[in-house]
Amino acid sequence: QVQLVESGGGLVQAGGSLRLSCAASGLIFSINDMGWYRQAPGKPRELVATITRSRYAYYADSVKGRFTISRDGAKNTVNLQMNSLKPEDTAVYYCNAQGAKNYWGQGTQVTVSS
């Protein structure tokens, strides 16, 4: 099993920044890709960004140029730096790790006020 614990959510004004972190523990050797998803009220969960073991990053079009995903193998963490935040970025953000199974964190709320 893999356990994922997110931190760093909160309330910020439009144009501001937040940094999300996710710490993985357990069978971390089994993890391949890691990433962040988000779910706004009344909407399906959507991909925000993913990063492979070799640090190849993929971003949703809606966050390209504003968000940066990074991964620290030594600390078993994946981070999401979010800049130029918009009200439409408001959602619960979930950390994801793909290994033998698909693992999820408990989610952290990000609220961007206009």
Word description of this protein:
The chain has strands at 2-7, 10-13, 18-26, 34-39, 46-51, 57-59, 67-72, 77-82, 91-98, 102-104, 108-113. The protein is built from no helices and eleven strands. The mean pLDDT is 95. The radius of gyration is 13 Å and the shape is globular. A hairpin with a 5-residue loop joins β5 and β6. Strands 2, 4, 5, 6, 9, 10 and 11 form a seven-stranded mixed β-sheet that branches. Strands 1-3-8-7 form a four-stranded antiparallel β-sheet, with no helix packed on it. By secondary structure, it is mainly β. It is 0% helix and 55% strand.
Cα-based radius of gyration, to the nearest Å: 13 Å
Instruction: Give the integer mean of the pLDDT values.
Output: 95
Number of strands: 11
Residues in β-strands, percent: over 45%
Q: Decide which structural class fits the backbone.
A: mainly beta
The main pleated sheet reads as: 7 strands, mixed
Q: What form results from the Cα inertia axes?
A: globular
Uncertain parts: none
Topology order in helix (H) and strand (E) letters: EEEEEEEEEEE
Number of helices: 0
| Spatial gap, N to C terminus | 40 Å
Helix fraction bin: under 10%
